Amino acid sequence: MKRALIISGGGSKGAFAVGVIKDLETTYRLSFDTVIGTSTGALIAPLAALKRLDVLEALYTSVTTEDLLEAQDLGASIWNGNSLNTANGLGSRVRQIYTDDFYNQLLASTAKVYLTTTCLQSQELVVYTTDPAPAAGTYYRVEKIKSAEQFRRAVMASASQPVFMPPVRINIDLPGAINPGFQYVDGGTREYVGVGIALEAGAQELFTILLSPRQNAPDPTTYKGLLAILLQTVSVFITDVADNDLFAPRQYIHFINYINQVKTAMKADGIPDAALERYFNSTNPDYQNLIHRSPVKLHIIQPDTALEGGPGGLVFKPDKMQQMIQLGQIALQNYVAHLKPGETDWA
């Protein structure tokens, strides 16, 4: 069974995903054919693909906001800059972790990594991947990564929240690149969680880690100041995008699973395979992909209530992130405990 690991955006809240991944790989010994990361998920995905759990945990428990982001003068940033913060600290860590050797090991591994970005100029969702033969995206453009430096830039671009962090020119030094000056930012601007990408990559079992809460309690805070209002607006935006991103894939999965249930029932009633093929035959390739696909399992692990880290997860506190790792482990344990017999073959 082809498995996918999908990690949403959320800044420092990515520590929750680290906790989930830690138990998926150490307790349940799961490996993934496809790993899809958005924003902070793009920082996590390559390390998860190569099972570098020690490096992953250290990254999300040993850094502070000041280690990653450097605030710039607000007035100057609004009128002349391209972000409220620089991200030199984050950039140096990306270069330290994702070396050329790491990139070559990633290419040699069986797991294919997909990193989501948003192009400011074309407004497209652009997915950069290590997959040598990726499927063409139906609602996004796929770019095969051609060098270690392009890989690092794609990670940075996916993690760069617009306004708060500077956009990245992913293809600026790539020989023969079209539009090398185009700027890329957080993939979560268009796709908070890449479930649709995993489905188009052919995944049959999807482990989706959402960093947004299952329940949003009303916040009595009165927001004052441009920055506070902007940050809370980002939080509202993330919740909305998360709901929208999951709606269509869930319907797609429900339809596929329903068709498979109908076929099983028809066979049990004695309808021969030749008749089934005739009933479910279609010359439309879109229908072929639906009616001849194996059942799909979708697992969603997310916190019950809002994680710390502030709107957008731009506050990095080691003690809080350590707690979020533990919350991720607990959330996975609770999810597994509520599974019905036969719902998985891994727990």
UniProtKB/TrEMBL annotation:
It holds the Pfam family Patatin. GO terms for biological process: lipid catabolic process. The active site is at residues 39, 186. A motif (GXGXXG) lies at residues 9-14. Keywords: Hydrolase, Lipid degradation, Lipid metabolism. It comes from the Bacteria. A motif (DGA/G) lies at residues 186-188. InterPro entries: Acyl_Trfase/lysoPLipase, NTE, PNPLA_dom. GO terms for molecular function: hydrolase activity. Residues 5-199 form the PNPLA domain. SUPFAM superfamilies: FabD/lysophospholipase-like (SSF52151). A motif (GXSXG) lies at residues 37-41. PANTHER family: BLR7027 PROTEIN (PTHR14226:SF57), NEUROPATHY TARGET ESTERASE/SWISS CHEESE D.MELANOGASTER (PTHR14226). This is Predicted acylesterase/phospholipase RssA, contains patatin domain. It comes from Niabella drilacis (strain DSM 25811 / CCM 8410 / CCUG 62505 / LMG 26954 / E90).
